[in-house]
Each structure stands twice: as structure tokens, then as C-alpha cells.
């Protein structure tokens, strides 16, 4: 006899179900929204029976219905990708005007998935053809939506019909269509020969599910266990009506769990707070503890903190595959193919691929040392400062790597020191294997079939030669990737030819939302689950982390294709009910607990969950006290920057001797003025970061190009009359074009034409300004040096390389080309005039750079000539920004230079000044001076 049994939300549904099954003599089958509860039910049955027993059959809702189709028909499940392709082919053949400009499958695939989702919902909710015809009629009048949506709605009835006909013809089936077909089956087939079917705490049922289970209910085969007061949830109340039952529910028991609410600033601090709360838990207590993570984005922070307390945990919250090393390696291989130009690979993507931790631990020759040596040596060879044939190459071919005999010898020498003698020929052979595996074997991939083979071969080699097997997350990632690669190998779509951009874009679309589940024991240890994974489970200790309002409740997106009002009019309401569904599961998991701990982010970006707000309001109302609930705030310890930085570096005798002989340039003086420690690291210890291989073109790269170009075109002896001629302008622009085309930094860039346009525009402005001036170029990019005597009578050397010196009527002008942003005022007169006693902080306020007065001093001292004007030539604006010409300002600048050189040499320490900390966070020496 069919029945609906309701239990209170405070009760344990696992124990209730296990006791019911243990007392029954029927042949039973259990149906639940997820598989996890079945494990706990079987465990509880074992505890009850204390002997061997036959456990009941168990299905999820989807498995129960789909298995009915597969057991009684010849249909097979079609993948979403293949179903989307079928829809694309239908529209291309029957409704081509709907494609608009999306003529390829890849360009249409997002729409195809949206249409597939819509048809799935129509099938699941048993939306009739008549309803769709009404929608069509309204669409012909015109909904207040884009015309393309109206066109789709006019034709959705026919598209769905043709889609179903195609599935029937090919014996393929989707989830929605399988549910729709199962509705027509008799109860005797649906019951699968079981005496009793138990549906455990259903909440929202699609109309197809309602029809299927109603048949079983009418045939006296179905028992439904519900939990919670139906009068509190409209969906649960409607469930009773669907099955023709009166609501029988006693007074809801009052939950007596202990509640704690905590706030923390961000994801990591929430994880740290969780760690602090569970660190004293015993293994026995952890077995009764669940951590619910509504948003997988916080999962990494939670796991990283929890793993510092216990290694015994099981994760089923779904970790984003995109954050794993195995996927990042595959994705970097794909990126290298997309950025490839002919036979040349983008150097940055080559190094990114080879620097992946999994590659660096692959055993291509005896052990993984070989891989690490290879990537290190290739990376060093590609650096601009390496001096090799590969130096500074933005794009590189494998043949160029092999032709660099010094590189091969370097690798051979280093490998020999670690692994013993190895020949250059063996090195070439191993490099060829590496290049084939990660680069060349992917070059001819032009279909999903070939992509599937490439991925399978690649992942098999990575698994076999790397340490992947030691890291469960990467093992699970490879398993997911292999599963996807098998899925894309079948069907008509796998034979379609794509260009690389489309093919890899399609693969990334397929994989972007995939998640991995870390293995562990679901029956013991700490459980880390998503909200839906916790359905029908009960734990004494419940922690919910990341309770921001965008995560809990996490309202599923409305389809971007069909407006929600149209969906609701068709009876598709699952999104409309999503809030109630999540509220129900949230209340169930906390109602059965003894200790509930809710943690939310407290910052300007996130709002705390409305579920927390509801609990607080209920407590305040019950106790008539606005302070009924206390929120504990988690505060991370503060670290003072001045405390973490080193105070002093002693100037030893050797350092002072070195400083006395050091030639001083304006960059050294300016660096010291801004930060003593930076000067120490750069010019005493001679520390500098290597330039990143293949880095994006920077302002300094463009600046170097312009300086080199102007040195060649505005040369010594050139006059303003020469510049004003039409032949010079042609020579100037032709030279710019030729030098640009020959420059390796620009040669292979996709946006090179844009950079060239900007450079041509700026150089035309520069040339226009030059034509309006009178001069003869006295010197260009010329170095000068002179001595400077301090008050202590110590003599030091000053050096400079001046971009340009003009002469007109025996007057000399000094200019420094600037391609970046130029400050309007090099000198702040207000601070400069009040600068009586020198100290670094006041000097920095008074003047931004001592470059120009140093240039003037060095030029005049070394040549005996007089400079009347000196300034910055702003290339962006084609304008000259002159330094103040007053003799008093120049004289004071010289005194400042002497003061700073004297301080560099005379004091006993390079000492940190807290007033220099403005740029600490962006300084490349930040970590070595802490």
C-alpha cells in the first residue's frame, strides 16, 4: 500500500530509513536525490542487523528513470555536446535565418546549449505542443525581447519536434527526453519488479517525475518519506496535493542546537577561523562533523587550512578543474598552439609549459633532474642578457633551439654532473621527445577525434613519467579529462574539421565548468561537502563557510536566451523555486545538529547570507532583544612593515672603498634619494631580477626603440634646415618603418600594426615640432664624465650619457628624451625655496630628479662650454619641458648632489627609512629586505 510518511526536520532521516528497511520483508528499492545517503543507510543497517544481509537496491532519481529507458529500449545517452551539434544541424538545415552571422558550430555553440537547456526543461516539465503554439502566436505579435529571441520562439515547437525525431531515428536520448518517454510506461515496468519503492525526502519534482511516481503511487508500490513541516514550504505542501494526500503534521519540534556566528574578512581568513575552531576535535568528533562549502571558490582556502589540523577528511564539494596543475599543463600546451606563428612558438608560452610542476618532475631520462635542467637552461638562453643566439627572442622554433650548440653543451654538462656522462646526441634525442610531446604532436590536430587521441596520449605520458600518481587531485583531474576526451570522440561532430582557434575554444567551453571530487571515506573523518551533497545527511557538528548572499542561496541563472516570464508561463519554475529549495536543505542540515557554526565574509564587497539574517531576526523576535545573537569577529594578527624590514646594512671597509671609486650617475643618485636600501641592493650588491622570458612589450622596450631610432635619424651635425626638407621627412618615416619591421620585439606581435600606428603618429608630431625650431645638433647619445669636489675635499666621478645637445648662435641646449609620462613641474618652488637644511625627505618634496642639473654640470665641466637651457623632451606631446633657469636653483641642486654623495660615502649604514615605504609593495626587492 502506498503511503506518505512525514518526520520532523530534527530527526535523523538516515536512521529512520534504516530502521524502516530493517523491519520490512518486502523487496525494496531506495531512491534519493544523491548517492551519498545510501552509504550511511547501509552502514546503519549493518549496525542494526549485526550480521550479513542483502542491502536494498539504490538509485538516484535520474538513474531510476533513465535505467527504465535503457532496460526496455535500444536508446543510448547522448552527450550535451553531441545534442547541441544536432540542434545546430537542424537549425542550419530547416531554419538557417536563425543562425544570423553564427555560421560555424563553434560560433553558435553557446546558443545551441541554451536551446538544448530550454528543450530539456520543456521535456522535463511536460510542456505540451499546444502551449508552445500559444508562445509562437505571441512571438509573432512580438514579445518585448530582441527580435532573434522572438524568431526562435516562433520556431521552438518545430525545432523541438525535429530534435525528438532525430533522437528517435538515431536511438539517442537526452535526460529530458528519457523522462518524457518514461511517463508513457506502465507502472508494472516502472516498478522493476520491486514490492516497494521508497522515495526519500523528495522536494522539488519535475512534472515528468510527478507523473511517473504518481503511477507507482496509484499502483500501491510507492512509499514517500518527507521531512519537515509541509505547511512551512509551499513545494512540500504541493507534493501532498500532487499525490492526493491530506497534510498530517504535528507541531514542529524546536531545534535546540547551539548556534555560533562568526565573521572573517576574506576566504583565507575564513579558512583560518575554521581551522582554529576544529583543531582540538578528536578523530571521533571529526567523524560527526561536516563542513559545508556553498561556493567552490573558497574550497582551496578551506582545504589548505584544514589540512594543517588533520589529514583525515573527505571532499565532495567539487574542486574547479581549472585550478589543478594537470589541467594548467594541458591548457598551457593549448595556449602554445594558439599563439604559434608558423614554425615559431611564443617563448613565454614555451617556458610556461615547461615550467609547470608536473613537467619539471617528468622522468625523461632516469630521473626528473633532466626536466628541470632543460627548462632552466632554455629559460636562461632566451633571456635578453644571455648573449646566446636565442637571446631576447619573443618567438622561437625547435630548430633554433637545436642549432644553439652552446645550449646543448650547457644542458649536457649540467646533466652529466647530476646523472653521469651523457652525449650531446642523447640530449638532442630527449629534447626531440619533449618537443614532440608538448608541441609538435599537436600541430596537425584539426578535429575532436584527433584532439581526443592527442589528449589521451599526452595524459598517459604525463601520468607515466611524472609524479602525478602521488597527488590525488591531479589523478582525479586526469580521470575527468580522459572521460571528456572519450566523450568527444564519438558522434558526427568528432569528424568535423575545425581550425585551431575554434577547436581549442570548443574544448575549453566543454571543460570550463568541470569539477573534481577528491577521494576519501564518506563514512568517517571530516566531511567537506557542498550544500546539495549534504542532502539527507545528519551530523552533530555543522560548519558552513562562505555564507555570503551570492553563495547561499546560490540562485541558478535564468537562461539568457528565454525570459523568465515566458519560462514561468510555460510552467518551468525550478529557478523560481530555487530559493525555497536551498532554504529547505539549509534548515534540514542545521535542525538535526547539536552545534551549528556559521561563518561569513565581513567586507565591503560581500553581503552576509539572508539565511543568517533570518536566524538572527528569529532569535531577536523570540527573545525580544536586539542583542540576542553575538557575532564573533575573527581578526588576523597585524604585521608592521617597519618591524619586518631589516634596519641596517653595515658599510664595511671594503664597501666604503668600493663606493669611493664608484662613478655616480643620475640614476644612482635618484635611486638613493628614493630608497637607501634599493641603492644598496642595486649598486652595491649588484642584485637585479632577470627579465621575464617572452614578457609583453613594455614602456622601456618602446623607449629603447625610440632612442635608437632618433639616434640614427637625428645625428650629429644635423641642422634644422636639413629637417625642413621634404626628402628628410621621407627618409625619417621610411627609416621608422624599416627599423620597426626589423625589431624582434614587434615582429611577431598580433597588435604590431597598432603599435606602429601610434609610433608613426608620435614621430610625425615630433618632426613637426622640430621643423619649427632653429638648431644644429652638437652631439647625440654622447657620454661625458667629470669630477666633483665635496666639502670634505673628497673627489668623486660623475658620468652621464646625454640624449641630445643642440647648438644655436653659440648657445647650447641639453635635452633628455622621455617616452613615458612627464611631470609638468620637475621642481616644486614652494618646497625648494624653503629647503634650508638638507634631508632626503625634504629634498624629495622639492625635486623629482637631479638628472638635468647633473647633465648641465658634467657637460660644462668636461667641455668648458656653457649650457643656457636644459630640459626634458616629452615625446608623447612633442614638447620641451625646460628646467628652471635661475642660477640659484642650479647652485642649490649642485649642493644637494654633493650632500647625497657625501651621505652615501660617509655614513656607516645603509638604513631603512620608514618614509621610503611608499613604493615598497611594488619594489622588486620587497621580499629580500624584509
Structure overview:
This protein is α/β, with parallel strands linked by helices. 49% of the residues lie in helices and 13% in strands. The longest helix has 24 residues, at 147-170. It is elongated.
According to DSSP, the number of beta strands is: 25
C-alpha Rg, in Å? 37 Å
Query: Main beta sheet: strand number and arrangement?
Result: 7 strands, parallel
Mean model confidence by pLDDT: 85
| Alpha-carbon distance between the two ends | 75 Å
Tell me the overall shape.
elongated
Number of helices: 40
Low-confidence stretches: 638-645, 691-697
Neighbour order of strands in the largest sheet = 10-15-9-16-17-8-18
Attribute tags:
930 residues; alpha/beta; 7-stranded parallel beta sheet; 25 strands
Layout of SSEs?
Blueprint: E1 3-7, H1 13-23, E2 28-32, H2 36-49, E3 57-60, H3 61-72, E4 76-77, H4 80-94, H5 105-124, H6 129-141, H7 147-170, E5 172-173, H8 175-182, H9 187-190, E6 196-200, H10 207-218, E7 222-227, H11 234-242, E8 258-264, H12 267-278, H13 283-286, E9 289-292, H14 299-306, E10 313-315, E11 319-320, H15 325-338, E12 345-346, H16 347-354, H17 357-360, H18 369-382, E13 395-396, H19 398-403, H20 405-419, H21 424-438, H22 448-465, H23 472-487, H24 500-511, E14 515-516, E15 526-529, E16 541-544, H25 564-569, H26 578-591, E17 595-601, H27 610-623, E18 631-633, H28 641-644, E19 648-650, H29 653-661, H30 666-674, H31 676-684, H32 699-713, H33 720-723, H34 726-742, H35 744-747, H36 752-771, E20 776-789, E21 795-808, E22 811-818, H37 829-833, H38 840-846, H39 851-863, E23 867-874, E24 879-882, H40 887-906, E25 909-911
Parallel strand pairs: 1-7, 2-3, 2-6, 4-5, 6-7, 8-17, 8-18, 9-15, 9-16, 10-15, 16-17, 22-23
Antiparallel strand pairs: 11-14, 12-13, 19-25, 20-21, 21-22, 23-24
Helix pairs in contact: 1-2, 3-8, 4-5, 4-7, 5-8, 6-7, 12-14, 15-16, 18-20, 22-23, 30-31, 34-36
Amino acid at each position: 500500500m502506498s503511503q506518505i510518511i512525514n518526520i520532523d526536520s530534527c530527526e535523523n532521516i538516515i536512521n529512520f530509513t534504516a530502521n524502516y528497511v530493517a523491519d520490512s520483508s518486502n523487496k525494496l528499492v531506495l531512491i534519493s536525490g544523491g548517492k551519498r545517503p545510501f552509504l550511511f543507510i547501509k552502514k546503519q543497517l549493518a549496525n542494526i542487523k549485526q550480521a550479513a544481509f542483502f542491502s536494498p537496491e539504490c538509485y538516484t532519481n535520474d538513474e531510476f528513470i533513465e535505467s527504465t529507458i535503457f532496460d526496455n529500449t535500444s536508446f543510448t545517452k547522448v552527450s550535451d555536446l553531441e545534442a547541441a551539434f544536432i540542434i545546430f544541424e537542424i537549425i542550419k538545415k530547416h531554419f538557417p535565418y536563425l543562425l544570423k552571422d553564427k555560421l560555424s558550430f563553434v560560433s553558435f555553440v553557446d546558443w545551441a546549449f541554451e536551446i538544448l537547456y530550454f528543450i530539456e526543461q520543456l521535456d522535463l516539465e511536460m510542456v505540451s505542443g499546444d502551449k508552445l503554439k500559444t508562445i509562437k502566436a505571441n512571438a509573432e505579435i512580438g514579445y518585448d525581447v530582441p527580435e532573434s529571441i522572438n524568431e526562435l520562439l516562433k520556431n521552438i515547437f518545430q525545432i523541438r519536434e525535429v530534435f525528438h525525431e532525430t533522437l528517435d531515428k538515431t536511438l539517442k536520448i537526452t535526460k529530458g527526453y528519457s523522462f518524457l518517454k518514461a511517463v508513457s510506461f506502465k507502472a508494472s515496468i516502472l516498478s522493476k519488479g520491486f514490492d516497494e519503492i521508497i522515495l526519500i525526502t523528495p522536494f522539488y519534482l519535475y512534472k515528468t517525475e510527478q507523473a511517473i511516481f504518481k503511477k507507482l503511487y496509484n499502483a500501491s508500490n510507492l512509499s514517500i518519506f518527507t521531512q519537515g513541516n509541509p505547511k512551512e514550504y509551499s513545494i512540500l505542501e504541493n507534493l501532498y496535493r500532487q499525490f492526493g494526500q491530506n497534510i498530517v503534521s504535528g507541531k514542529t519540534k524546536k531545534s535546540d542546537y547551539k548556534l555560533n556566528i562568526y565573521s572573517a574578512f576574506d576566504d583565507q581568513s575564513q579558512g583560518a577561523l575554521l581551522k582554529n575552531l576544529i583543531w582540538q576535535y578528536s578523530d571521533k568528533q571529526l567523524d560527526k562533523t561536516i563542513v559545508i562549502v556553498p561556493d567552490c571558490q573558497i574550497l582551496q582556502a578551506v582545504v589548505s587550512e584544514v589540512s594543517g589540523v588533520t589529514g583525515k577528511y573527505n571532499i565532495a564539494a567539487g574542486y574547479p578543474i581549472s585550478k589543478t596543475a594537470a589541467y594548467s599543463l594541458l591548457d598551457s600546451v593549448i595556449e602554445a598552439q594558439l599563439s604559434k606563428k608558423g614554425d615559431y612558438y611564443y617563448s613565454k608560452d614555451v617556458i610556461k609549459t615547461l615550467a609547470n610542476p608536473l613537467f619539471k618532475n617528468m622522468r625523461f631520462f632516469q630521473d626528473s633532474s633532466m626536466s628541470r635542467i632543460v627548462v632552466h637552461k632554455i629559460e636562461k638562453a632566451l633571456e635578453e642578457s644571455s648573449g646566446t643566439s636565442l637571446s631576447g627572442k619573443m618567438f622561437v622554433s625547435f630548430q633554433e633551439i637545436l642549432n644553439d650548440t652552446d645550449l646543448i653543451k650547457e644542458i649536457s654538462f649540467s646533466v652529466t654532473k647530476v646523472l653521469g656522462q651523457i652525449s650531446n646526441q642523447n640530449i638532442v634525442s630527449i629534447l626531440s621527445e619533449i618537443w614532440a610531446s608538448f608541441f609538435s604532436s599537436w600541430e596537425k590536430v584539426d578535429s575532436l577525434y584527433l584532439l581526443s587521441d592527442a589528449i589521451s596520449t599526452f595524459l598517459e605520458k604525463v601520468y607515466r613519467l611524472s609524479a602525478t600518481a602521488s597527488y590525488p587531485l591531479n589523478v582525479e583531474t586526469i580521470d575527468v579529462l580522459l572521460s571528456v576526451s572519450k566523450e568527444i570522440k564519438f558522434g558526427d561532430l568528432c569528424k568535423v574539421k575545425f581550425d585551431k582557434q575554434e577547436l581549442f575554444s570548443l574544448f575549453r567551453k566543454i571543460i570550463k565548468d568541470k569539477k573534481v571530487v577528491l577521494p576519501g571515506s564518506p563514512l568517517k573523518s571530516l566531511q567537506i561537502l557542498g550544500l546539495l551533497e549534504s542532502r539527507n545527511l545528519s551530523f552533530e557538528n555543522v560548519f558552513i563557510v562562505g555564507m555570503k548572499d551570492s553563495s547561499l542561496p546560490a540562485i541558478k541563472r535564468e537562461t539568457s536566451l528565454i525570459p523568465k516570464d515566458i519560462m514561468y508561463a510555460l510552467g518551468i519554475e525550478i529557478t523560481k523555486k530555487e530559493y525555497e529549495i536551498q532554504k529547505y536543505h539549509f534548515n534540514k542540515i542545521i535542525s538535526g545538529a547539536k552545534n551549528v557554526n556559521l561563518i561569513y565574509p565581513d567586507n565591503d564587497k560581500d553581503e552576509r547570507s539572508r539565511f543568517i539574517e533570518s536566524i538572527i531576526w528569529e532569535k531577536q523576535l523570540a527573545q525580544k532583544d536586539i542583542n540576542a545573537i553575538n557575532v564573533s569577529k575573527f581578526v588576523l594578527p597585524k604585521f608592521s612593515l617597519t618591524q619586518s624590514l631589516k634596519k641596517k646594512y653595515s658599510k664595511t671597509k671594503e664597501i666604503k672603498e668600493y663606493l669611493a671609486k664608484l662613478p655616480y650617475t643620475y640614476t644612482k643618485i635618484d635611486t638613493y634619494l628614493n630608497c637607501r636600501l634599493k641603492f644598496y641592493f642595486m649598486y652595491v650588491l649588484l642584485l637585479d631580477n632577470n627579465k621575464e622570458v617572452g614578457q609583453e612589450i613594455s614602456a622601456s622596450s618602446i623607449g629603447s626603440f625610440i632612442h635608437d631610432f632618433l639616434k640614427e635619424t637625428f645625428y650629429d651635425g644635423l641642422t634644422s634646415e636639413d629637417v625642413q626638407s621634404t626628402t628628410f621627412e621621407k627618409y625619417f618615416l621610411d627609416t621608422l618603418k624599416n627599423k620597426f619591421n626589423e625589431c624582434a620585439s614587434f615582429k611577431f606581435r598580433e597588435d604590431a600594426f597598432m603599435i606602429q600606428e601610434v609610433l608613426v603618429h608620435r614621430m610625425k608630431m615630433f618632426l613637426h615640432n622640430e621643423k619649427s625650431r632653429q638648431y644644429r645638433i652638437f652631439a647625440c647619445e654622447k657620454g661625458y664624465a667629470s669630477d666633483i669636489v665635496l666639502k670634505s675635499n673628497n673627489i668623486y666621478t660623475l658620468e652621464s650619457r646625454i640624449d641630445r645637445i643642440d647648438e644655436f648662435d653659440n648657445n647650447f641646449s641639453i635635452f633628455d628624451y622621455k617616452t613615458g609620462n612627464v611631470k609638468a613641474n620637475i621642481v616644486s618652488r614652494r618646497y625648494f625655496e624653503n629647503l634650508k637644511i638638507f634631508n632626503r625627505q625634504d629634498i624629495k618634496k622639492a625635486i623629482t630628479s637631479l638628472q638635468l642639473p647633473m647633465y648641465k654640470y658634467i657637460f660644462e665641466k668636461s667641455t668648458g662650454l656653457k649650457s643656457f637651457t636644459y630640459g626634458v623632451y616629452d615625446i608623447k606631446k612633442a614638447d620641451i619641458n625646460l628646467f628652471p633657469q635661475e642660477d640659484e636653483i642650479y647652485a642649490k641642486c649642485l649642493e644637494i648632489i654633493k650632500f647625497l654623495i657625501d651621505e652615501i660615502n660617509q655614513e656607516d649604514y645603509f638604513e631603512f627609512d620608514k618614509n621610503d615605504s611608499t613604493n615598497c609593495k611594488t619594489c622588486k626587492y620587497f621580499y629580500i629586505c624584509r
